[in-house]
Write a structure and sequence with these properties.
276 residues, alpha+beta, Alpha-Beta Plaits, three-stranded antiparallel sheet, 12 strands, 46% helix, disordered N terminus
Length: 276
């Protein structure tokens, strides 16, 4: 691909030029494979390198020197980042318009694909891989205020009584239940098997404890359907929670503390909340 010259166009009558298709494939891979903040920074650097008359940066930037400008939002799951592009030369306006339009379309497509890939197909919650991607960024930005770890009590007994197919259906029903009860500052993940994690952002200790105790109470009063079967199953959960503090210096330390608290709740008979 030519770098920063004025001979390039984005599209022709037959479609997008191969050189630009190569860049779009690169941008889509970065969005799908990286956290969106990192993807936005990498894409911006690449744009600046290849088209030196375009100013590109991660984050919002509306310089008064721009004659045309766009902020493109990359949104996947609970993660969001901005990619800013602009030009100062009016003679490049048509190129920039085509560039902006095609880039917006392809980044939106990449975000849609990633949004499907980060979902657990059984529970409908976010998956473990996305937890491992999102939690460190939230912790770094001081947006991970608390983390809860949940285990369905005696799930093995449910599988033995009803079979794994209906056990899987219970996981799906429980996932739907969690989604219905979450507030905007919460995100739930299926961590593995019958284990789940909830990330709290901007939630104080009292609010979070009240929510989790309310969740335990609601679950104790709910019967969960098992697929097409007329059977409904009553369950209990063990829950552990950890809060961000100076003694917990990473999201993995928070998860470990919450998991240990959950095991303490389970070992004490289950159906309880323990706070680390």
């Amino acid at each position: 691909m030519q770098k920063g010259d004025e001979s390039g166009f984005v599209t022709s009558a037959s479609g997008i030029y191969p050189e630009f298709q190569d860049f779009l494939r690169f941008a889509m891979r970065r969005i799908i494979n990286d956290h969106v903040e990192k993807a936005a920074a990498t894409i911006a650097d690449t744009i600046t390198e290849r088209w030196n008359f375009i100013t590109a940066s991660a984050g919002k930037n509306a310089s008064p020197d721009f004659v045309d400008h766009a902020n493109i939002t990359l949104a996947c799951g609970i993660s969001e980042a901005d990619l800013s592009i602009g030009i100062g030369d009016a003679s490049r306006s048509q190129f920039f318009k085509d560039f902006k339009d095609v880039l917006e379309q392809q980044t939106a497509l990449a975000c849609s694909i990633k949004s499907m890939l980060i979902k657990d197909p059984l529970s409908g919650l976010f998956n473990n891989a996305y937890f491992d991607e999102a939690a460190p960024v939230l912790f770094r930005d001081a947006k991970l205020s608390a983390l809860a770890f949940i285990d369905i009590d005696k799930f093995k007994t449910v599988n033995e009584k009803y079979g794994h197919r209906l056990g899987n259906s219970l996981i799906a029903s429980f996932g739907s239940f969690l989604k219905e009860h979450l507030s905007r500052n919460m995100a739930a993940f299926r961590y593995g098997g019958d284990e789940f994690a909830i990330i709290f952002s901007g939630t104080d200790r009292e609010e979070m404890t009240r929510f989790l105790n309310g969740l335990l109470h609601s679950i104790s009063k709910t019967e969960f359907p098992c697929g097409g079967s007329s059977e409904k199953v009553g369950i209990a959960i063990s829950c552990g929670c950890a809060f961000a503090s100076d003694s917990l210096r990473s999201e993995s330390a928070m998860l470990s503390a919450a998991e240990n608290a959950m095991f303490n709740a389970k070992n004490s008979g289950g159906g309880k909340l323990f706070v680390s």
